Amino acid sequence: MSQPLPPLQSLLSAMPALPDARRGEFARRYSEQEAVLHQRLSGLYGTLPGFARWYAELAAQVGRLAAARPAELQAQDEQRLANPDWFQDQSMLGYCAYADRFGGSLAGVAQRIPHLRELGVRYLHLLPFLRPRAGENDGGFAVASFDDVDPKLGGNADLDALTARLRAAGISLCSDFILNHVADDHPWARGARRGDSALRAYFHVFPDRRMPDRYERTLGQVFPQVAPGNFSYVEDMGGWVWTTFYPYQWDLNYANPAVFADMAAALLRLANRGIEVFRLDSTAFLWKREGSNCMNQPEAHALLQALRAIVAIAAPGVLLKAEAIVPTRELPAYFGDAQAPECHIAYHSSLMAAGWGALAEQDAALLRAVLARTPELPPHTSWLSYVRCHDDIGWNVLRAEAGEADGADAGPERARARLAAIANFYSGSAGQYADGARPSGAAFQSSDPHAAHGSNGMAASLAGLAGVPAQVAPPPSPQHPSRPQPLAQDLERQQAALRRALLLHGLALSAGALPVLYMGDELAQRNDDSYRGRSEHAMDSRWLQRPVFDEYAFAQRGDPATPAGQMYGGLRALLGARRRLDALAAGAPRTVLASAAAVLALARGPRFVALFNFSGSMQPHTLARVTPGQGAADAGWRDSLTGQLCSGVVELAPWSMLWLEAAP
Ligand code: GLC
Fold first, then answer.
1. Are strands 181-183 and 249-251 parallel, antiparallel or unpaired?
2. In this structure, are residues 396 and 450 in contact, taking their beta carbons and an 8 Å threshold?
3. What pLDDT is stored for residue 427 in this prediction?
């Protein structure tokens, strides 16, 4: 057998038609990435026979896909490289939606671009839109083809048209890249079922329960009620297949280099269609190790670093985003470091959960604890902040913070009880805003007596709107003098719920992150109970927060007498202020200041302070200098939203916030 070409030559030989200058550019990028790429992959696969040949073939494949990248996207890569912090500035705003629920189809999503522009959105995360498994498919998270759009949503031409239109509107398309598993009817799984041994090796398959039982000793469970355990017996495979999520989602075996090479190629093909950001789904689970919970393993990070190096060679304008719903201390690793960068963006799920926790407890302690554990980021990276998403709010990421009382460790039992109380608050069994009348949300699955169950629901409902009759009419107005008078008590509860929903949005927008709005929250859309009547969704209460875009609420967005109008108006005021404030860029410094327990006082640099009152009572707060000697407070502060000047002691109304700029 002939010797493999050296990797760089192999890469360049795959792009013979390119002019020398372009080839030179790719050679330069490869040389820059080679140390990390080769080291990580040889660490994972170097002892396997044929590694050198496999690596040379991988380089050739990267070369082919780099050469195939459309000129327009290559030009965008160059722009991004010249401005690598483009996604960090304070005008960056994301929006997340299911394509079918938002626009009916990909073409319908394109029709919604004016709405996105009105909000100032520059990044659109469309939940899975590739061809999913036939039948149940976990909202598209069981992918049957990485190369075809879900026919229910359109064809590949619609995707190309959408990315082009979004690009023209200054909006980057983000797609899920579901790399931990494929659907059980993906061609790899079909081949494996037919007995193809090479494809069987794409999965973790065990002939009997011996190994699964050993692994199970230390594994958690994601869907313990409807998909208990982490292994599913598959008749055609004659064994147990590793299925962390639903039984029809087969975990890929990344100990097999062919899996890595095929997945890297799938990602680059999608990038060449104009997808600019990849949400790397379930990144924590990529590597299995007996005796561990098989999450956050060093090899999972090595895989991500190798993937990042490949992107940096072939599509360097593309961003990788980690979806790792893990304890705060495990999160920073997903950014890698200056020598071996990993993802550009990572969900800050602890910050999100702690915001809801602070509302339930009427105390910002959890938030302060999370922020204290949130380190400075490596250059050219950003957290992603959010209020709600399509998944449940998982409380267990906060175990460490919940176990802290006055800076001391109060132990796991206190942490569990505290998180369980918060979870119950939102699922309606205790102390919720609606006074027990109607639950704000639904409990998600749990079987672990040592853990709190997750919580489902739309932001406005969880914040208390669920407890207010939907038909609360706005009060009579000069335009509508004959409107029936709503019950004062209902109106008050409605106002309080909207203030709470806005409070959490204010936090996400000012915390130092790329904030992503969740479709419908901008209009205070409520829970959608209809999933209970759909057999394929009834067992998964995450569908509570997956409603169809509410055209009626949308039409009311300019009417401040309606809940939709109040939420939309309040949000737009925050967004407008944010765009003006450099201090709110993702990378600007962040300091937590002293405050009352119910208040979070968050300084962003010396000249901006955001105050959030998480309680239902008035809270006085004494404005002081952020940095002694920098004098901003002497001249007082200006409310960024109303323009009013203040100094000394401010009174924060229940569930209100102030965004204060140092007055000049
Ligand atoms: C991620 C998704 C979730 C899905 C799971 C399995 O956590 O956000 O919706 O069920 O991965 O793909």
1. antiparallel
2. no
3. 83
Are 388 and 441 contained in the same domain?
yes
> 487-504: per-residue pLDDT in tens?
788 888 899 999 999 999
pLDDT band at 631 (very low <50, low <70, confident <90, very high): very low
Helix 563-580 with 488-510: angle, nearest 10 deg = 20
- CA-based Rg of the chain, rounded to a whole angstrom? 25
641 lies in which domain range? 591-662
**% the chain with pLDDT above 90:** 84
Would you say the CB of residue 404 lies under 6 angstroms from ligand 1? no
Show which of 584, 610, 632 is a domain's final residue.
584
Query: Do 207 and 98 lie in a common domain?
Result: no
The band of 226, judged by pLDDT with boundaries at 50, 70 and 90, is confident
Give the residue, out of 245, 248, 544, with the most ligand 1 atoms within 8 A of its beta carbon, to mutate for a pocket test: 245
The verdict on 468 and 614 lying in the same domain is no
Same domain, 103 and 202: no
pTM over 0.85, yes/no: yes
Which of 196, 225, 251 marks a domain boundary? 251
pLDDT of residue 632: 46
Contact 508, 387 (CB under 8 A): yes
390 and 499 part of one domain: yes
Q: What is the CATH number of the domain that holds 399?
A: 3.20.20.80
Atom number, ligand 1, closest to the C-alpha of residue 142? 12
Residue 24 is assigned to a structural domain of this protein: no
217 & 106 share domain: no
Residue from 130, 179, 391 to probe ligand 1 pocket by mutation (most atoms less than 8 Å from CB): 391
Task: Write down the pLDDT at residue 127.
Answer: 98
User: Total domain count for the chain?
Assistant: 3
Number of the ligand 1 atom closest to the C-alpha atom of 542? 9
- Measured from the CA of 223, which atom of ligand 1 is nearest? 10
Residue located nearest, by CA, to atom 3 of ligand 1: 391
Question: How many Cα atoms within 13 Å fall on the side-chain side of residue 90?
Answer: 18
Tell me which residue has tokens 């957290």: 383
Q: Is 137 in the pocket of ligand 1 (CB under 6 A)?
A: no
pLDDT > 60? residue 313: yes
Using the predicted structure, report yes or no on whether residue 103 has a pLDDT greater than 50.
yes
Say if residues 607 and 662 touch (Cβ distance below 8 Å). yes
Q: Is 105's C-beta closer than 6 angstroms to any atom of ligand 1? A: no
Do 459 and 491 touch, CB atoms closer than 8 A?
no
- For residue 433, what pLDDT band results from cuts at 50, 70 and 90? confident
